[in-house]
Amino acid sequence: MKIAALLAVILAGGMLIYAGQDLPAFGDQKSPANQHPIVEYYINNSQSESGVGNIVTAVLANYRGYDTLGETAVIFTAGMAVLLLLRRREI
Amino acid sequence: MSRIQESVVIRTVVRIMVPFIEIFALYVIMHGASGPGGGFQGGVIFGAGIILFTMIYGIKEGKQRMSDKLSRILSSTGLSIYTGTGLLCMVFGGMFLQYNVVPLLSLDPANVSAILIDVVEIGIGITVLVIMISLFFDISPPEEDELRFSEEEEQ
Fold first, then answer.
1. Domain extent for B42
2. Where are the domains of chain A?
3. Which one of A64, A75, A91 would you mutate to disrupt binding with B, by most B Cβ within 10 Å of its Cβ?
4. A-chain residues within 8 Å CB-CB of B79?
5. Is residue B27 part of a domain?
């Protein structure tokens, strides 16, 4: 059983390493994610539209505000679920 | 109480470090608009500071700093700040979370949205830090004296 688990881990890890060879280099300008026109839009307009210098924050809180609201709601829901299930009695 | 918790060195170092960790967390939250940082990261650092304190000084001392009632109130407050900011934009005729329509101190729209992004980050930070702390309190094992007390209660 342990050998089977080890083999499964090695197989999965090997597949990930093999697939990792095809990833674009870090910060590669020609990678598909960096060639999308929205990238240029964010770089040119995020300062004038959002007023924050950090493009990541502008995308996180302004352009993708709904997404971040959902993330916060997910964290809140997870906390409430743990609170309801695992809460210790008041003593 | 374990030997680590009784160590004078660790107790003193934690006492000294926790305020600086909290200040750094507030800095990370407020710095989110102009550099690396933001509500999620700052909230986690703030929560980690209180968790560090609780690990050394015990659950009871930790709960004096962050009581169950306070954490219940604050966890929903953070999300309400975020949603309230979105609804505020709707009140002034924009879409949900369209920050630049709010007439705040007659600043130009870009500055208004920068301020409201900070408000939203604070909301995220409050939610994350309170949930971190309450998760830690909920799944931590009861302390020895606490355990003895609850056993007596059951009998």
1. 3-140
2. 1-27, 36-91
3. A75
4. 72-73, 76
5. yes
Q: Do B86 and A69 touch (CB under 8 A)?
A: yes
B81 within some domain: yes
Could you give the number of structural domains in chain B? 1
Whats the size of chain B, residue-wise? 155
Look at residues B135, B149, B147 and name the one whose alpha carbon lies nearest to residue B62.
Answer: B135
pLDDT tens track for B70-106: 888 888 899 999 999 989 888 888 888 888 887 777 6
Contact yes or no for B131/B123 (Cβ under 8 A): no
- B115 vs chain A: nearest CA distance in angstroms? 9
Q: Write down the pLDDT at residue A10.
A: 96
Contacts of B153 in chain A (CB under 8 A): 91
Task: Work out the pLDDT band at B12, boundaries 50, 70, 90.
Answer: very high
ipTM at complex level: 0.80
**Distance between CA B113 and CA B107 in Å, rounded?**
10
Q: Which residues have a Cβ under 8 Å from the Cβ of B80 and sit 6 or more positions away?
A: B123
User: Measured between CA atoms, how close is B61 to chain A, in angstroms?
Assistant: 15
- Whether B149 maps to a domain, the answer reads no
Q: Are B62 and B76 in contact (CB under 8 A)?
A: no
pTM, rounded to two decimals: 0.81
Question: Residue B127 and residue A90: Cβ atoms within 8 Å?
Answer: no
Query: Is the residue at B148 inside a domain?
Result: no
